[in-house]
Structures are given as C-alpha cells and as structure tokens.
Amino acid sequence: MKWADQLIKLSNFEVELLQKRLAEIAERRAVAEMKLAVLHAEGEAEIQRAREDAQAGWYHAGFAAGLKQRKAAVQLMIDQTLAEEAGARDALAEAFETLKKYEQVADNARYAAIKEQNKRETAALDEIGLRRVASGGR
Known about the structure:
Blueprint: H1 2-52, H2 54-134
C-alpha cells in the first residue's frame, strides 16, 4: 500500500503547488485591475483639472494619448493574466482528477486486501470447524 500512499502524497504536493500558482496569478490580475482603476481615476481627475484650468487644457491631449497607451498596456497585462489563470485552473482541475483517481485506486486496493483477509479468516475458521467435526466434536 506504500506505493499508493506515495502517489497520493505526490499528487497532493502537485495540487498544492498549482493552488499556489493560481493564487499568485490571481493576485497579479488583481494588482493589474487596480492599476487600471487608478489610471481611470487619473484620467477623470485630469479631465476635471483641464475644465477648471485653461492652461492645463493645453497639455490634456498629450496626457490623454499617454494615458490611452498606459491603459492599453495594463489591459493587455490583464488579458494575458486571465488566459494564464484559465490555464492554471485547468491544470489544477486535472491534478484534482488525478488525485481522486489515485485515492480511488488506493481505496480499492485496501478493500481488496480486507476482502482477501476475510476470505483467509473464513477459510481458517471453516478448517477448524471441519477438524472438530472430524475428531468427534470436542
């Protein structure tokens, strides 16, 4: 049964690694989404500033172009992270399936061992009973 326990242990380790990887990816995505929200807020603040100050309005077009590029870069990062997260989720699901298969095989092996042990005990008790009958039922 040691082989099954080792497979289960290795599979659990793989699941834990994939869970950590998925958490790291989700954290990176959250940070990128936060950056995008900050960029949106900066854009709104700059629009308000340009409305209030005519001098700032002159620089708004350049700021808006730069902001658009930064938003696009952050959005690309978010999209890439989402794709990576989907792949990590698939890998984690596959690892869980593998773990469950190993656990099921181990359970079946344990059940087969118990069944075999019970057969041996029954055979031994049957033999004892037959010997008693043969010897006169003492």
